[in-house]
Design goal:
The protein is α/β, with parallel strands linked by helices. The protein folds into two domains: 2-77 and 306-330, no CATH class; 83-299, 3-Layer(aba) Sandwich (Rossmann fold). Helices cover 46% and strands 19% of the residues. α10 links the parallel β6 (202-208) and β7. The radius of gyration is 31 Å and the shape is elongated.
Amino acid sequence: MSFGHPLLLLTLLVLPLLVLLYFLLERRRARYAVTFTNLDVLASVAGGRSIRRYIAPALFLVALGFLCVALARPHRSTLVASNKATVILVVDVSGSMHATDVKPTRLGAAQAAVRTFLDHVPKNVKVGLIAFSSEPQVAAPPTTDRDLVRRSLDELDFLQAYGGTAIGDAIAAAVDLGKKTVGPTPRRQTIAYTVASKNPLVSILFLSDGKQTRGSLSPLAGATTAKAAGYPVYTVALGTPNGVLNRPFGFGGGVPARIPVPPDPTTLHAIATVTGGKFFNATSADVLQSAYKELGSKLGRVPGKKEATNEAVLLAAIALVAAGILSAIWAPRLP
């Protein structure tokens, strides 16, 4: 924690002076004799208060201490929104996204989760959208216009194709889009990737529900491209191991086909590990929503300071109210 006006912390020195003054007054009060005819009643009033008589004054001092801290304008370390950050959303729209093992469909669950992400990511963070099956295509360039991204998200139904899954090419396309948005990565970050991973200008949120079947780049080759650029890739494996895609007709117009479409969590986990991102295994719509909500609260943010003056004042008010209530409850009442 840091302070905007650290010298004002010297006001805390008044607290020990108040404690000393309190005990001096208590000692002075004890010198005077108290005349009371009914000693039994006096004992019942005064007895058992040796500890709790100090609780209310202590709470008052705590409140005063928080007010002194508030005067110094405290700042706490936290994640703050970056006005230079960009998040590239990459969504698989291959035919297997019609599978219904994740309700209502894999694609429908993915669209809902992306909307949740857009609701939680900072408004000044640019968000782009790439859809891919056999090849990637930019559905929305990086922008702070959330409505544009939402409209592009709604159009993914029309982009969906019965093609393959080009994971490596999709990651490379996201890297290229990031570079066009923020420029080339500084050389010092490409040499020491750990520096870039702590404060990346571009993050990639990648969702796929199957194994790679198309494309010129392998998944790990795409991950290497992202690592070289300093872009962490957060991967989501969508679907269940027993997921199937129901086709109305099999080959030749015969019996309807049930095509297994399991996700590939092993590959997606490796991509996240290589690039310094994080892997999520989403086997249900609720898990997918939770993952995108968490990422929406983290991506596009960098370590920074946030003023905590209001929190200090609130704590002071709570302590002061508690002191007043306890004083009223425990105040001695003579018959």
